[in-house]
# Entry
Amino acid sequence: MRASPASLVLAVSLLALALPFALVARAQQQQVPSTLPGAWRYPHPDAHGIAIVRAAIEPAISQIPSMFQGLARERLASRTRIANRIEIATASERVQVSSHGERDFTVDLALGASPSTIRGPEGNEVRAQHRLAGGWLEQFFAGENGDLRVLYSTEPDGRTMHVDVTITSERLSTPIRYRLDYVRVQ
# Structure
């Protein structure tokens, strides 16, 4: 069955009308969601966040020989910082994420650019990148001992920010994954 010339014209016209909307939608997906920039605080004592991190570490170190588990547990826990406050700012195509707590740390990078070498919070060089993942802001850090992925997302009302952390290392049998929730500072 062949399409009539009129139906072809109609199909092309509809496509021409839909294309600008598709391009706008795609451009909007390349921006940090408007609910994300701002100041956020961890609404619990540090011990609460540390307990979440320690619980996430256990499955990952369970495959390590038992004589090394204590050392691995302490090393991973001591290197994981709970930010009391996180500030996210956007300007043009740059995104700045500042974590405040035991050690302050700021990463200011162009969104979606190739990874850049920066100094990590402990002074070591890491490759860092800001990119969008599923429409949300992702920080990706690659070091000599593994990778760290931090995904920042919010609830639709913009009052709660989820910080999903994934740590991978060739030394660990499974990734370490945990979530901390922050509230917007008014």
In short: The helical segments are 5-29, 46-61, 66-79. The chain has three helices and ten strands. Residues 6-29 have pLDDT under 50 and may be disordered.
